[in-house]
């Protein structure tokens, strides 16, 4: 019976650990090291207040990643919905506590750590959607009614997240979900239809945006309009980029960051600081590390013999991609500032934990790449 | 199974599309990085430098103003200020409470401070109080532990050690008003002061100096991180005045509560040794800013303390003008020195009667006696014979009717009337009666105390056209020229072209005014041998005396309101044998020239000569001179008045 559920070649923990893609872990560590260096610089040449706690959290995150990696993919499949609903409940909980006059809160304090349900939802939603589409045949996917449940799966958290209001997370959830729908085989004309409706609804959505969010969009469209007000961050960030030039001003030598012209240089704008100090060469090197991680993520997803693994892997990879792209694009003035951290580099625990958890799932897919799972969640023999 | 492999193919295709999209987007990012960091790098690097480097202007110290001996009349004082650094004060209210026990802070002031604290950025200090004395500063320093965020800051502020006594010469400095901004960035510095009047205004550019600059690295909040480079400016230049500070102080003190003006000049080179206008004001008060109340008090005072009456006050010269009338007549040969005119106490002209100040008349008068006894009828007749235009021409030769070009603002030209002037200004023909009035220095005629001093100087020096000045062409003090023996490079002034005989007659008559028992100012003579003075009194009537009043007896000055009392005047020079100092004294509504103005002029000329001999002895000892006892007794009021038309 246990074979029915956990089918395929069984491996011991030891074997599984051996199977972990250690080169991938190595690249993750290199990337994180870049983060420590930048936080050390942001701290004015001190491991406090940012570099040291960041390193400790990363160490903890790596452990979580390895633990997640050895857990059988089929267990994730089985508990995908459960995890999703628990996280959704947590989201509702922060929403209610926010409404109860406790101010805008995005996290729940569970003693030793602040849980940010919107971050957890990025993984939970991918799990839920991957499981749903794993269970549907190619004909199922073509039926519009089949799409009602997954639409609800994505709508509920997005509404809750937008209410917080957290535009960045909402955007990542929406685009990741769209990517999964697309890879699951939802026909292109349906996307076109939704796109057209979305454009038509944009003016209505505008009404529901918070004043500061509207301001950010307007400022993005013309930052020079208000150089000391809302456009300040974008302009200062671009100045920092440009002044870095090809090879940068030197590690710890950036003036924009160290003289506080950059807002939140340890979090959202850390890439700006990196580019100012290390120049185009440093920026491209970091981008190359990310591309390497993405390539491995994609390769692992493609290598999986289960549809769930494919979708889960690509979902996690897409989320990771979105972090990188949105953060870099916003600090370079390509898209509005929405508040998305740079993965593994920006100071902040939850986002890193989410990513390392996601990488753990990816590792797990790699470790269990030959496990085949039936549509009902049972192991397939052939 | 077949279905699922088909599903996987679809997934692969779609995933590949998605990956392609991601690749395009990431390439876009790389392109954007290249654009910002290579193509636009230069532009952004400049912007970054601008961001981080802020140019701060440094105010230069203002130049000092010193008197002819190099004694400072205007300098800069350390200005202790209490500042509140809000970011260092955990509780501003408590800090202010504690501070309030040392320097009382009223509720209004407290509101201002709290408002400014709120408006200022956290690290920009708020000024609580300026110009603190040392005692309070030390009290605050002692209590520093209980006053977090309270700092003492030292700046510079203009200081006039002899405030009111030098106010009308030096003027004052005050904050720059918007219309005074010229583009000099110094003027836009907060707290910068510029000269508003007096020497401070005329020599403002010289005194101001040039601003230095300090390049500082700042952070996004404008807080200075460190100084990158510093360029010290140039301090303002020193301005050396011709004023003799001790004489200035003595004259000022001698005036006391009287309202008026006095000018003391060197008859040879035009140096103004003293220029006093009373009442005066404290120029130090303008530096910190006057309250509305104080300002209103200054501007509404009927004695106008803000006006420099020495050059802006225009008065009828009265009898002090008689020398000009006489010289005009002598110069044109209209009368001779010995031609006699009879004074019966009044002169009839048409329907009008012109009275002499002496009720019974002076009898037969010649030129010498006419001046010495200041006979009005004599001058009515001389003026009538000479004619207004000839009198006007002579007045102009002595500097009346025009601005003399002293380096102070606000100099008035006065008025020398003529036929042409009346036609132009009033569009009316000249009347002979008006000439008669000008004959005794009344009517349309207007002069300033400065012009009267210049007249006295030109009479005293033998008809040389000296012009008054407050600064030497070469910027060194008399001290330098004495010690270094550098020659005085004054240009030789031109002559007025008067016959020496005529001038001698006038000067003898003026000597008689003071030194002859029959003279109008005999009581105010200088008795010291070799320092005797010559002069001329004047009493200028400012109200109309009706026929009825004249018949009942003219009221005494003390019986009428201040505003209607006569102006007391005196012009003179000393010593008589070789004049060096000329003086003019005008006391507004002071009474008679002989009893009020002459004694003051005497004391001034005596002090000027005493200081000169002390100085030649060797140097300024600084102590104001003590006038010999005999000269200090106050002359009894004398009802000697020159009366114009009744």
Give an overview in words:
Chain A is an all-alpha fold and 382 residues long. Chain A has one domain. Chain A contains 16 helices and 2 strands. In chain A, strands 1-2 form a two-stranded antiparallel ribbon. In chain A, strand 1 and strand 2 form a beta hairpin. The radius of gyration of chain A is 21 Å and the shape is globular. With 646 residues, chain B is α+β, with helices and mostly antiparallel strands. Chain B has 2 domains: 184 residues, Penicillin-binding protein 2a (Domain 2) (Alpha-Beta Complex), CATH 3.90.1310; 330 residues, DD-peptidase/beta-lactamase superfamily (Beta-lactamase), CATH 3.40.710.10. In chain B, strands 2, 3, 4, 5 and 10 form a 5-stranded mixed beta sheet that branches. In chain B, strands 12-11-19-18-17 form a 5-stranded antiparallel beta sheet. In chain B, helix 13 packs across helix 15, helix 13 packs across helix 16 and helix 15 packs across helix 18. Chains A and B meet through helix 9, helix 12, helix 14 and helix 15 of A and helix 1 and helix 2 of B.
Helix/strand/pairing category of chain B: alpha+beta
Could you name the CATH homologous superfamily of the largest domain in chain B?
DD-peptidase/beta-lactamase superfamily
What is the global morphology of chain A?
Answer: globular
Radius of gyration of chain B, taken over Cα atoms and rounded to an integer in Å: 36 Å
Distance between the termini of chain B: 138 Å
Topology of chain A as a string of helices (H) and strands (E): HHHHHEEHHHHHHHHHHH
Rg result of chain A: 21 Å
Mean pLDDT of chain A: 84
| Low-pLDDT residue intervals, each spanning 5 or more residues of chain A | 1-7, 378-382
Largest pleated sheet of chain B: 5 strands, mixed
Q: What is the residue-mean pLDDT of chain B, rounded to a whole number?
A: 84
Span between termini of chain A: 17 Å
Number of helices of chain A: 16
Give the helix level of chain A as a range of percent: 55-70%
């Amino acid at each position: 019976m246990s074979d029915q559920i956990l089918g395929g070649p069984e491996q011991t923990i030891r074997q599984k650990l051996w199977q972990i893609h250690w080169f991938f872990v190595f690249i993750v560590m290199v990337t994180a090291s870049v983060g420590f260096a930048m936080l050390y610089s942001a701290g004015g040449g001190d491991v406090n207040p940012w570099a040291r706690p960041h390193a400790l959290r990363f160490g903890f995150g790596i452990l979580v990643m390895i633990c997640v990696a050895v857990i059988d993919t089929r267990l994730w499949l089985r508990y995908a919905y459960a995890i999703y609903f628990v996280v959704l409940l947590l989201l509702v909980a922060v929403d209610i506590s926010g409404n109860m006059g406790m101010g805008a809160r995005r996290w729940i304090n569970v003693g030793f750590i602040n849980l940010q349900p919107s971050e957890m939802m990025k993984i939970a939603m991918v799990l839920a959607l991957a499981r749903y589409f794993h269970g549907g045949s190619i004909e199922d996917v073509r039926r519009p009614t089949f799409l009602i449940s997954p639409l609800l799966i994505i709508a509920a958290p997005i509404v809750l997240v937008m209410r917080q209001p957290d535009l960045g997370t909402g955007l990542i959830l929406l685009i990741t979900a769209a990517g999964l729908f697309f890879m699951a085989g939802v026909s292109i004309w349906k996307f076109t239809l939704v796109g057209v409706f979305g454009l038509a609804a944009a003016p209505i959505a505008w009404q529901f945006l918070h004043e500061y969010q509207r301001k950010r969009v307007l400022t993005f469209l013309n930052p020079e309009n208000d150089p000391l007000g809302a456009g300040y961050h974008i302009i200062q960030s671009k100045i920092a980029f440009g002044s870095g030039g090809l090879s940068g001003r030197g590690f710890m030598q950036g003036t924009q960051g160290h003289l506080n012209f950059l807002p939140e240089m340890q979090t959202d704008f850390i890439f700006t600081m990196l580019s100012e100090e290390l120049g185009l060469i440093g920026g491209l090197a970091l981008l190359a590390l990310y591309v390497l991680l993405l390539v491995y993520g994609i390769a692992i997803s493609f290598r999986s013999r289960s549809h769930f693994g494919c979708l889960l892997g690509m979902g996690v990879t897409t989320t990771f991609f979105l972090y990188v792209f949105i953060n870099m694009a916003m600090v370079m003035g390509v898209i509005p500032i929405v508040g998305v951290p740079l993965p593994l580099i920006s100071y902040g625990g939850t986002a890193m934990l989410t990513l390392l958890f996601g990488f753990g799932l990816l590792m797990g897919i790699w470790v269990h790449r030959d496990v085949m799972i039936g549509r009902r969640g049972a192991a397939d023999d052939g | 199974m077949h279905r699922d492999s088909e599903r996987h193919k679809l997934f692969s295709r779609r995933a590949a599309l998605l990956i392609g999209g991601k690749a395009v987007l990431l390439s876009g990012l790389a392109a954007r990085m290249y654009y910002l960091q290579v193509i636009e790098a230069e532009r952004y690097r400049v912007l970054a430098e601008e961001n981080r480097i802020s140019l701060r202007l440094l105010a230069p110290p203002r130049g000092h103003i010193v008197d002819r001996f190099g004694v400072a009349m205007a300098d800069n004082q350390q200005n202790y200020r209490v500042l509140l650094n809000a970011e260092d004060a955990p509780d501003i209210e408590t800090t202010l409470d504690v501070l309030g026990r040392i320097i009382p802070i009223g509720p209004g002031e407290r509101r201002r401070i709290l408002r400014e604290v709120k408006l200022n950025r956290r690290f920009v200090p708020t000024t609580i109080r300026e110009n603190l004395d040392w005692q309070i500063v030390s009290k605050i320093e002692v209590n520093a532990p209980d006053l977090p965020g309270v700092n003492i800051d030292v700046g510079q502020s203009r200081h006039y050690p002899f405030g009111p006594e030098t106010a009308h010469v030096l003027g004052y400095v005050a904050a720059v008003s918007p219309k005074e901004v010229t583009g000099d960035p110094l003027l836009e510095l907060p707290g910068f002061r510029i000269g508003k009047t007096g020497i401070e205004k005329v020599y403002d550019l010289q005194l101001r100096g040039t601003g230095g600059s300090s390049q500082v690295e700042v952070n996004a909040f404008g807080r200075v991180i460190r100084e990158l480079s510093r360029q010290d400016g140039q301090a303002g230049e020193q301005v050396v005045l011709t004023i003799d500070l001790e004489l200035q102080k003595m004259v000022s003190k001698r005036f006391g509560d009287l309202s008026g003006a006095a000018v003391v000049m060197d008859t040879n080179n035009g140096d103004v040794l003293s220029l006093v206008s009373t009442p005066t004001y404290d120029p130090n008060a303008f530096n910190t800013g006057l309250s509305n109340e104080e300002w209103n008090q200054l501007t509404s005072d009927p004695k106008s303390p803000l006006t420099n009456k020495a050059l802006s006050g225009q008065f009828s010269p009265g009898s002090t003008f008689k020398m000009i009338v006489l010289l005009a007549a002598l110069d044109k040969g209209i009368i001779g020195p010995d031609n006699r005119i009879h004074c019966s106490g009044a002169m009839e002209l048409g329907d009008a009667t012109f009275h002499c100040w002496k009720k019974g008349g002076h009898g037969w008068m010649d030129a010498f006696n006419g001046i010495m006894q200041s006979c009005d009828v004599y001058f009515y007749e001389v003026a009538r014979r000479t004619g207004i235009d000839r009198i006007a021409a002579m007045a102009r030769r002595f500097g009346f009717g025009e601005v003399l070009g002293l380096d102070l603002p606000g100099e008035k030209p006065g008025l020398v009337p003529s036929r042409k002037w009346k036609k132009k200004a009033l569009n009316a023909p000249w009347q002979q009666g008006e000439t008669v009035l000008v004959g005794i220095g009344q009517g349309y005629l207007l002069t300033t105390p400065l012009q009267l001093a210049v007249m006295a100087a030109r009479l005293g020096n033998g008809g040389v056209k000296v012009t008054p000045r407050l600064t030497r062409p070469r910027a060194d003090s008399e001290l330098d020229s004495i010690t270094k023996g550098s020659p005085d490079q004054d240009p030789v002034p031109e002559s007025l072209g008067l016959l020496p005989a005529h001038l001698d007659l006038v000067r003898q008559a003026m000597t008689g005014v003071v030194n002859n028992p029959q003279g109008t100012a005999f009581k105010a003579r200088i008795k010291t041998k070799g320092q005797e003075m010559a002069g001329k009194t004047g009493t200028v009537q400012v109200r109309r005396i009706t026929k009825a009043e004249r018949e009942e007896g003219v009221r005494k000055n003390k019986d009428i309101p201040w505003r209607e009392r006569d102006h007391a005047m005196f012009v003179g020079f000393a010593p008589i044998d070789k004049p060096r100092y000329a003086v003019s004294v005008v006391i507004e509504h002071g009474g008679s020239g002989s009893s009020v103005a002459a004694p003051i002029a005497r004391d001034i000329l005596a002090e000027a000569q005493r200081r000169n001999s002390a100085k030649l002895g060797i140097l300024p000892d600084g102590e104001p001179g003590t006038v010999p006892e005999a000269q200090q007794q106050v002359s009894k009021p004398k009802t000697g008045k020159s009366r114009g038309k009744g």
